[in-house]
Design goal:
Low-confidence stretches: 1-14, 396-407
Number of strands: 13
Structural class: alpha/beta
CATH superfamily of the largest domain: ATPase, nucleotide binding domain
Number of helices: 12
Strand order of the largest sheet: 6-5-4-7-8
Oligomer: single chain
Number of domains: 3
Strand content: 15-25%
Amino acid sequence: MTDLLRVPGLGAPPSSRASVLDAIRVAGTISRVEITEVTGLTAATVSTTVRRLIEDGLVREAGRGESTGGKPRVLLELVPTSRYALGVHLDAEDVTYVLVDLGGAVVARLRRAQGVGAPEVGVARMAATLRGLVESAGVRWDQVLGLGVVAPGPLSRRSRLVLTRPAMDAWGDFPLGASLGEATGLPVVLDNDATAAAVGEHWGGGAGGSRAFAAIYLATGIGSGAVIDGVPLRGVSSNAGEIGHVCVEADGPECWCGSRGCVEALAGPRSVVAAAEAAGFDLDGAGRGLSERFAALSRAALGGDALAANLLGRSARYVAIAAQTLVQVLDVDRLVLTGPAMAVAGSLYLPAVRQRLATAQFARGDHDVDVVISSHAGEAAAVGAAALVLQGELVHPGGGVRIDVVA
């Protein structure tokens, strides 16, 4: 049903190639001897692999390191402008596009504040926008490795399609990967937006060097993702991390997923905005999307409005419970708060999550959990979508990344 990304012109990377590339990416600059030490590969294998990577234009020599008594070692680094990847985040209210280089840096970005619309129209619009984004960055189309597309889950392992919440019902049975692949001529990766956000944090340095970290993703809903030893946690159907749909009140309100008392139903942006409007808070809802109304409520809370602060504080306490559950199940030592809603309200959620983990986290006697707000929370899912494409070139083929491929 699923396979690893195959990049035209580069083929499936062997494990030695993936190991060497990832070692260079993580280190920034590194010598052949150091690559041998950190990967466990033989010196001959490293030498041969590095030579081929240099011939492919992916790696270059970057001067010499300091001498330790002998001849200074030649340092190696990625050539970030050698290859690129595109990422798209589909949401009911807007579409975010990014172009990242081989090192994971965003070189172009665009957000369309519009719904995705009908699938056929949406695909044509996305393909045109992607070509325009690449052209505006001065990048050749043949330098683009592939396209990652993420959306609110869940994913369907059976159909390999992205399924979505009611606001995007028309896309539920649409062959998104095949249609975009045909429209762009690129390999297409489909994934859950929260999982992608975690991969993006790992790729962009948000993991802070942690070998086991998780991300809580707050957009119009609540999700999470985790990366353990560089590998995204996926589960049987690539739906691991749906922390927003863990029940915290057995007799709580109905959730769109079919359950009751889910964290998302109690604390998600939709429920927070609904509670505010029911209490008489004027969010000028006519003609404004959920994200805008939640942002307006967050600004009011930050500005000292008592009602807004109470509603966001209640949401933060539930999110903190979800964070505690996530941290204890996975035993991570770093938690990143990310997503468009965290981009505007992260400072309201951060204290509650930190306090909960400091006082109630099971393994707190052994290790702390570092809780931070993402430096690119607003576009984390799109960056992660592009990073999933890069994973196909730089990470071990056996690393567990299961993705939908369109040649």
